[in-house]
Design goal:
The complex is a heterotrimer of chains A (367), B (348) and C (324). Chain A is α/β, with parallel strands linked by helices. Chain A is 22% helix and 29% strand. Chain A has helices spanning 24-27, 35-52, 66-70, 92-104, 116-125, 148-159, 165-168, 237-243, 346-354, and strands at 10-15, 56-59, 80-83, 109-114, 130-135, 169-171, 174-180, 193-198, 201-205, 221-226, 253-258, 280-287, 290-302, 307-311, 314-318, 321-326, 331-337, 342-344. With 348 residues, chain B is an alpha/beta fold. Chain B is 35% helix and 19% strand. Chain B is built from twelve helices and 14 strands. In chain B, strands 3-2-4-5-7-6-12 form a seven-stranded mixed beta sheet, sandwiched between helices. Chain B has a five-stranded mixed beta sheet with strand order 9-11-10-13-14, with helices on both faces. In chain B, β2, α2 (61-69) and β3 form a beta-alpha-beta unit. In chain B, 60% of the residues are buried. Chain C is 45% helix and 10% strand. Chain C has helices spanning 5-30, 45-54, 68-73, 78-85, 119-133, 151-162, 182-185, 193-198, 210-225, 256-263, 267-277, 283-306, and strands spanning 60-62, 139-144, 167-173, 176-177, 180-181, 202-206, 231-236. A five-stranded parallel beta sheet of chain C has the order 1-2-3-7-6, sandwiched between helices. In chain C, α1 (5-30) crosses α12 (283-306). The radius of gyration of chain C is 19 Å and the shape is globular. Classes of the chains: A alpha/beta (367), B alpha/beta (348), C alpha/beta (324). Chains in contact: A-C, B-C. At the A-C interface, α1 of A face α8, β6, α9 and α10 of C.
Chain lengths: 367, 348, 324
């Protein structure tokens, strides 16, 4: 993080324009999030941030002017508003770029609007970002439902130093992923690895293509690594939660291998195990309103830093969205660490500001 | 000069018979009989379901045929006509209703740019057995947006057939022809005639489109009129015959597109004088087209310029005090006839 | 829904047929061998192909003024298409329709449409007919972002929703209505935001990814077939060429940089890369498919060039269907 003293109290706002609009409105029961809803949320967050002490607000713009419309008239309040350059094509890359810019500009807090996928993009741009995670996406394990006005206020408090980040935040876990380069055509050695990350879960699915990205067909699941496996959430991680609940505040996670018979018939019913033997059937909401039964061959708790290797063919889904394809024999390694974003607890920040919680005035301890 | 009411020419049904129906009743009966006969026929439009249409045109159909075949639509004329086009291209035989002829303007793209042109644009490969039913005509204080006669606009578009029935008998037979036609047709009922009665055969019969009806024979002057103006012209003709011994020949083209120019011209050649009567405004109306065709075909036969008796060039007023002077009536038609005959016009 | 190898070949083949046909048409247009307006579909191939591969043959489509792609994707005969674009007697419409009215009713392609938004009501009508007949055929309305600002589109979509008709609405959002960027003429950014206003589900899909489009279309078509009513898919895509004609760069209304950025996502290149990397289709096979299609296109051009102009005697035919 930059030296807050030398820069104005800066709050970043990153709203993924594409969040809450994907195919899970068809294949599951997810609700759409309109631009108008996002504009309102961004505007309330900015108003709150200014109230909380932000002197400068950075907004990631998009092709559609969500930011521009959200801040209409607000610059009159004397706060500086910096709208980042309009990207040419809307994609997850824009959230990554915007997160990097927020870091460069010395943002003391970043408000993120989106689902798990958007938060992952922000973390890819700025892994340890001090962020407030607001859900406007589809699967919302990482972000929370909280009113944007207060979320913005909390961001303003933290960015302005009125509340010390360490007093009101906890560092999230993340899943660090190393993807081996695909085997060269001539059969030569792999050229190297590509780093990637997820905040909630990484799954190996049988799909050859990333296509419409979302994962909704449980029969495609092969392996799952979940850093968050909380029973009261929706997403692939809910499968892990049904087996070995692991809170976001606990170290490590869960590794699940799905059974050979996963994907065979008889899985959609709520009945018992679909196959004899050690496999167990777990039923969980893998997308909003979509409960699926999956056959689990085995699962185990993962310690922090413990690596899990998976091998193609298939695709890797990050936080519920297919993003990387693995060719046959191509490997990827997942490791859960405690090095994720510093997630600001809005309620805690507001309590600190109200003086009801004394400041510890020192950075939070990591596990 | 003898004046005899003749049986409608060119009809499949020879005898209108004794039974009388209202204009609207004849239409309604046609719908029932057509829908019973052909499962591919349905009706869609505003309030055409259980309400049976705002004027009762489709009364009782929903009870017999259900909401599958009597479809209440949104108030969305473009989509109503589009629904008919798409369903017709897909092989059905839709009847879509536009509550007032004025609303044709709302749907004009679908009517004029789509329905009228598909066949030609597609090199003849599309069949469009689409019937648009609507209600035109002034005289009910419905004012400027619910009273117009816009047939000239529709006639101007190649690909459409435009039908203006003047009696219960014609309405039923022409409606049958429209629905059975494989081209987009627009049939315009006249709102002031809904309660008019006349003989209507019970059986299903068809009056061919594009064939005029000589409603009254006469030797002195030809009066071309369609829709409600046939009735008004007949009144005028009766009075002129009784009072002045002038015998008018009334030609009702029934369809204004295609237009039976042949019958009109033949009559003009016989009487040597011709007037055209319509509710629509005079400028650019059917009268202009008919006058032009008559002078092209029968110039040497004409003893006088072709007369036009039509509405003045203004929107249709609301007040009966104004509207009464807007739409041609028997009195104005008589005056127009006398003028073309070079006779003195009473009160002129 | 994992596409089968046959589906992948089909997607590739349809996209490539569109691309090579359009490029040939563009060359003819440049050489003044093609009268009238030419609205090329290049860049958007993944949308028509992804949707049409997911469709059944009896499913209908209504199209737009940029409609060649939809006919090719529906299986159109390239020779008849090329002849039609050249205004020749052997064209699909005997030279009476041209680029903007090209159609093949036998393939249930209900015609390109010169009126923006004019096709949606017709697709809804076809959908009505399908429901009326009780078959599980679906009609697909292709339309651009621009047409969603027109009344006919709203009327049609609302009607399809109200009557729960089996219609799939596919918006090809290529960011421009003719020469004006979308953001100048719409206060919303995703056309799909309108779907909720009609009470139908809507999703955004990457229109440069044929498999993504295919997946979404399969879902939308399945909903319609099951009697669950219309679905709205917004495919984010881009046209490489100008609204009309064959220019790509140097426009006042868009930057060259933007064109180049979209071309990096080219649907055919990306598709070929993916399937070869996955070892599903060899580069040799892709090349041989391309050569086959190029030969088909070349033959279509030759067919078009050799076809006579329509006889003047046909000028007045086909205005009406003659009734016995």
């Amino acid at each position: 993080m930059s030296d807050i003293a030398s820069t104005p109290a800066t709050v970043g706002v990153i709203a993924n324009p594409l969040a809450g609009k994907d195919i899970r409105r068809l294949v599951a029961e997810a609700s759409p999030t309109s631009d108008m809803a996002k504009i309102g949320i961004v505007r309330r967050a900015v108003i709150g941030a200014i109230e909380g002490g932000a002197e400068r607000v950075i907004l990631a713009d998009d092709r559609r002017g969500i930011a521009a419309r959200a801040i209409d008239g607000l610059s009159a309040s004397g706060v500086k508003i910096l709208v980042l350059d309009e990207p040419i094509i809307d994609s997850g890359m824009n959230s990554q770029r915007a997160a990097r810019r927020c870091r460069e500009e010395g943002a003391g807090a970043v408000i993120v609007l989106g689902g798990d996928g958007t938060h992952r993009d922000v973390a890819k741009g700025w892994k340890s970002a001090p962020l407030i995670a607001l859900s406007t996406g589809t699967n919302n394990v990482f972000p929370r439902q909280i009113e944007a006005t207060v979320a913005g206020h909390a961001a303003g408090l933290v960015a302005s130093g009125r509340v010390v980040l360490a007093d009101a935040s906890a560092q999230a876990k993340c899943i660090e992923v190393e993807v081996e380069s695909a085997q060269a055509d001539d059969g030569g050695a792999a050229a190297g690895v590509t780093d990637d990350l997820a905040l909630v879960d990484v799954a190996l699915v049988s799909n050859t293509f990333t296509a419409s990205r979302a994962v909704w067909d449980a029969s495609t699941l092969r392996e799952l690594v979940a850093a968050i496996a909380e029973p009261a959430t929706v997403g692939l991680s809910a499968v892990a939660a049904a087996l070995a609940p692991t809170l976001r505040t606990e170290p490590g996670g869960v590794h699940v291998r799905f059974g050979e018979s996963n994907g065979s018939e008889g899985l959609d019913g709520a009945g018992g195990p679909a196959s004899p033997g050690p496999d167990t059937t777990v039923r969980a909401p893998i997308a909003p309103g979509l409960y699926s039964s999956v056959v689990v061959a085995s699962h185990r708790r993962l310690g922090s830093g413990e690596a899990v290797e998976v091998e193609g063919p298939g695709s890797l889904s990050f936080d519920g969205e297919r993003d990387v394809t693995l060719q046959r024999g191509q490997r990827a390694t997942m490791t859960i660490t405690a090095d994720g974003p510093h997630v600001i607890d809005v309620e805690q920040a507001m309590r600190c500001a109200a003086g009801t919680t004394p400041s510890k005035h020192q950075p939070a301890e990591n596990d | 000069m003898s004046a005899t009411e003749t049986a409608p020419a060119g009809t499949a049904a020879a005898d209108p018979g004794e039974r009388e129906l209202t204009y609207l009743g004849a239409f309604n009966e046609a719908m029932f009989q057509l829908m019973r006969q052909d499962e591919d026929i349905f009706v869609a439009g505003e309030d055409v379901g259980v309400q049976g249409g705002v004027f009762g045109s489709f009364k009782g159909l929903a009870e017999e045929f259900g909401d599958r075949r009597c479809v209440d639509t949104p108030i969305a004329e473009q989509a109503i006509v589009g629904l008919g086009i798409g369903a017709a291209v897909a092989g059905l035989r839709p009847v879509v209703d536009l509550m007032f002829m004025d609303f044709v303007m709302v749907a004009m793209d679908q009517i004029a740019n789509q329905a009228a042109k598909l066949k030609y644009m597609f090199g003849g490969k599309a069949e469009l057995p689409l019937t648009i039913t609507t209600n035109g005509g002034a005289g009910l204080s419905a004012a400027a947006q619910h009273s117009q006669s816009l047939e000239a606009m529709l006639c101007h578009v190649p690909g459409l057939k435009v039908v203006m029935p003047s009696s219960p008998y014609d309405l039923k037979g022409l409606m049958v022809a429209c629905v059975r036609d494989n081209n987009p047709t627009i049939i315009v009922k006249n709102k002031r005639m809904f309660g008019s009665t006349g003989p209507v055969p019970e059986e299903l019969y068809e009056i061919p489109l594009g064939v005029a009806n000589v409603v009254r024979e006469g030797a002195d002057i030809t009066v071309v009129a369609y829709g409600r103006m046939v009735e008004e012209s007949a009144k005028a003709a009766k009075r002129l015959s009784e009072e002045q011994g002038i015998e008018c020949e009334i030609v009702d083209p029934r369809t204004v597109q295609p237009l039976d120019t042949e019958t009109i011209v033949a009559s003009a050649k016989k009487t040597n004088r011709i007037v055209v009567v319509h509710e629509a405004v005079r400028f650019g109306g059917l009268g202009a087209e008919i006058a032009a065709q008559v002078q092209e075909e029968a110039f040497d036969y004409l003893d006088a310029p072709v007369g036009r008796i039509a509405a003045p060039f203004s929107p249709i007023p609301f007040s009966p005090g104004l509207e009464g002077h807007y739409v041609p009536n028997a009195k104005r038609i008589s005056a127009g006839i006398l003028e073309t005959l070079g006779r003195p016009v009473p009160g002129a | 829904m994992e596409p089968s190898l046959e589906t992948l070949r089909d997607l590739h083949r349809r996209m490539l047929r569109i691309r090579l046909f359009e490029e040939a048409a563009g060359r003819l247009f440049e050489g003044n061998k093609m009268p009238g307006f030419l609205h090329l579909y290049v860049g958007q191939e993944a949308v028509a192909s992804g949707v049409c591969v997911a469709m059944r043959e009896d499913d209908q489509v209504s199209s737009t003024h940029r409609g060649h792609g939809h006919l090719v994707a529906k299986g159109g005969d390239l020779s008849k298409m090329m002849a039609e674009l050249m205004g020749k007697a052997d064209g699909y419409c005997n030279g009476k329709g041209g680029s903007m009215h090209i159609c093949d009713l036998d393939l249930n392609m209900l015609g390109a449409n010169g009126i923006v938004g004019g096709g949606a009501p017709i697709a809804v009508g076809a959908g009505f007919a399908n429901k009326y007949r009780g078959n599980d055929t679906v009609s697909v309305a292709f339309f651009g972002d621009g047409s969603t600002n027109i009344g006919a589109f709203h009327e049609a979509t609302n009607m399809a929703a109200a009557l729960q008709l089996p219609v799939l609405f596919v918006c090809e959002n290529n960011e421009y209505g003719e020469y004006t960027p979308r953001h100048k003429v719409m206060a919303i950014n995703d056309v799909v935001d309108r779907a909720a206003g009609y009470g139908i589900p809507g999703v955004i899909v990457d229109g440069m990814d044929a498999i993504a489009v295919y997946e979404a279309a399969m879902e939308g078509l399945a909903r319609a077939r099951a009697g669950d009513g219309p679905t709205f898919i917004e495919a984010k895509t881009y046209r490489y060429y100008n609204h009309h004609g064959v220019q790509t760069l140097g426009m006042k209304y868009r930057t060259d940089e933007e064109v180049e950025e979209w071309k990096k996502k080219d649907c055919i290149e990306a598709f070929e890369k993916r399937v070869t990397e996955a070892g599903l289709i060899t580069a040799d096979e892709l090349a041989s498919t391309r050569a086959d299609i190029q030969a088909e296109v070349d033959a279509a051009v030759e067919f078009g060039e050799n076809s006579p102009m329509p006889d003047v005697s046909t000028l007045l035919t086909d205005v009406y269907t003659e009734m016995a």
